[in-house]
Amino acid sequence: MKYIDEFRDGQLARRLAERIASEVQADRSYSFMEFCGGHTHAISRYGIAELLPANVRMVHGPGCPVCVLPIGRIDLAIMLALEQDVIVCTYGDTMRVPASKGLSLIKAKARGGDIRMVYSAADALAIARQNPQRQVVFFAIGFETTTPPTALVIRDAARENLENFSVLCCHVLTPSAITHILESPEVRQFGTVPIDGFIGPAHVSIVIGSAPYEHFADEYRKPVVIAGFEPLDVVQAVLMLVRQVNEGRFEVENEFTRAVTREGNQNAQSLVSEVFELRTSFEWRGLGEVPYSALKIRPAFAAFDAERRFALTYEPVADNKACECGAILRGVKKPTDCKIFGTVCTPENPVGSCMVSSEGACAAHYSYGRFRDIAIVSETASV
Amino acid sequence: MVELLPNEQAVVDLGGIRKAISIALVSGVAVADYVIVHVGHAIGRIDPEEAERTLALFGEMAAMDAQDAAAHDKVTV
Questions:
Q1: Closest Cα of chain A to B14: distance in Å?
Q2: Which one of B24, B41, B58 has the shortest CB-CB distance to A236?
């Protein structure tokens, strides 16, 4: 497919990797965090980690929407379905995230909850139109990419005066999470991870633009390179980061110019600010309470806010004790550092949220990365 | 994008699969544009010139390598 295949050229990827190898300084190490789960997936799937020199390490970040969703939020959605007879609509990845009492949305569905997987927020709105006698709640999760579609359905529901539709809003913000990783006091609990630079998100940046990272790069003196999700994009971004580190620069560079501008998608931004406002604090799985890191529905659209309509109060719930998702989401531990990785916790039966989505660090390593730990037996080598 | 529909909808062709999506979040898109689709909504457009430029940059990097390798060969000879 055009604009995809050209960016997956293995030959070219190897040459770019050679270039990186020739430019890294042997006497230092480089740790770069890819914030976004889309990049985590690409790095595992295309074997990018193996292409890089030994002193360049990629640290997985918390930019996987379902991975950072705290148990207490899923419990609210399950409660709506099982106790309030609400039709709960949500994205597919959210269905299998472990919640309290051994439940998940998909297990709650098996118990009779009317929980429906939708491809788009617009599908949830359509279900509300088709079921005027039932309350329909869209359980909305994700970063700045999924927020504009949610804003759109709230605006449309308001225009139609739809009385049986509301949104349980769990939308979170990328720049505040990156900042939190660098300066949070809780980081001490897990130890700090030295990060020399960030690969900035692809789709999030299409919406918010490259400008929001400028203050961040300046203040924390860390380079940021915004990259597309294809393997050549990622390898090129690593090369650009290595160069910035070698030259002592900390700028925002944009590798993904084919889709990202400095200003971003202003249509989407103005719609989002019309419908949403900042929450003073929001709990992230793995990061804890992060100030001003999430959105809530503005009072003007209060009729479509499920938290108000059903008088919901959020109760934090601790993660499974054996699960290392917290440290993994901060980049302090690797999936293989977790005792239950690949044994008790697998994509078929996830204990922690990082094992749920294909963008999660654990699921990505389980599906692709773990095979690099197995020695390759070569027939020709023995000849 | 292969077809415009009413109510800010359009049909995209994704490697042979056709799907109706929303174009409410992007302004001024036309048939034959390449759009980036996220959860059923076009969130941005591909700039063909910038895509060419990025590909050319990869090519240059590769060419630089070839030159380096040639230079390296001469040194070692």
A1: 8
A2: B58
